[in-house]
Amino acid sequence: MASHAGVNHGLMEWVIRRCCERVAALPDTDRIPAKTALWAMADALEARSAINALGKHAQDPEYGTFEEA
Question: Which of 5, 19, 55, 69 is 20–30 Å from 29 (CA)?
């Protein structure tokens, strides 16, 4: 991840992990838009690799991984 002044990467990864958990709990009709928004947020934070490193939270067998979205 790129370094930004004042950014706590541990906290950022925790926030992304919590978002992934909440997205995984959504009904199917809401999951794809939520995953797209989460992917955009992670990309903006330069933390896409952090999401992929979270293992099961980043994978959805029906829709693929965030990288494939």
Answer: 55
State pLDDT tens for residues 23-65.
888 888 888 888 888 777 777 666 556 666 665 554 555 545 5
Q: How far is CA 18 from the centre of its chain?
A: 9
pTM to 2 decimal places: 0.45
Question: CB within 8 A of 29, min separation 6: which ones?
Answer: none
Q: Count CB atoms within 10 A of the CB of residue 9.
A: 15
With residues binned 3-state (H G I as helix, E B as strand, rest as coil), the percentages for the chain, rounded to 5, are 65, 5, 30
